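From the methods appendix. Each design record in this collection lists the tokenized structure first, followed by the designed amino acid sequence. Records were kept in a plain field format so they could be parsed without special tools. The example shown here is representative of the layout used throughout.

RECORD:
FOLD TOKENS (178 positions):
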């Protein structure tokens, strides 16, 4: 299971899923894999927030990200967190290094025969060359996107596609932990 965290975050926000920090990511992975497949690894890729002492917005973002990382890394969720970084340019944050990490891990997993099917939650077309190579290596890539904003490039290149709706993911939303 390979999750592009920023991509998933924005797609969930767009369909009005409110509590993304404590979303049931582990249950989502199990549901996506189904009863007949074993999830051997779950990876969550995201740009890590760095904050300076007086920067209020980045400090709040960093605090929320620490909560998310603690939740994802818990026994109930079981995710390995793969960090890129965030770069601030003209007041806007841009994620760097995340797509490369996903692509490398997809390829390493295929070359080292670590999986039969990579389940990819991302709509980033930068991953298409890696997906094509994985498929040449006779491995499957299941693209998980969202019906309100699918990636036609990933649909075209993946072995299989599932487009989620709000009803599909709403059951994995939960109340914040206190």
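DESIGN:
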């Amino acid at each position: 299971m390979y999750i592009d965290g920023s991509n998933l975050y924005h797609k969930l926000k767009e369909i009005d899923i409110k509590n993304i920090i404590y979303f049931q990511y582990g249950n989502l992975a199990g549901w996506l894999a189904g009863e007949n497949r074993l999830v051997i690894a779950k990876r969550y890729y995201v740009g890590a927030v760095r904050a300076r002492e007086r920067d209020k917005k980045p400090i709040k973002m960093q605090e929320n990200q620490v909560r998310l990382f603690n939740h994802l890394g818990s026994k109930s969720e079981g995710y390995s967190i793969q960090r890129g970084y965030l770069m601030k340019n003209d007041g806007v944050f841009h994620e760097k290094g995340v797509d490369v990490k996903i692509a490398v891990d997809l390829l390493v997993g295929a070359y080292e025969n670590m999986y039969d099917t990579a389940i990819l939650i991302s709509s980033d077309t930068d991953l298409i060359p890696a997906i094509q190579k994985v498929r040449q290596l006779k491995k499957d890539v299941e693209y998980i996107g969202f019906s309100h904003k699918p990636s036609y490039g990933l649909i075209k290149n993946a072995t299989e596609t599932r487009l989620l709706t709000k009803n599909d993911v709403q059951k994995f939303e939960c109340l914040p932990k206190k």
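APPENDIX NOTE: The radius of gyration is 16 Å.
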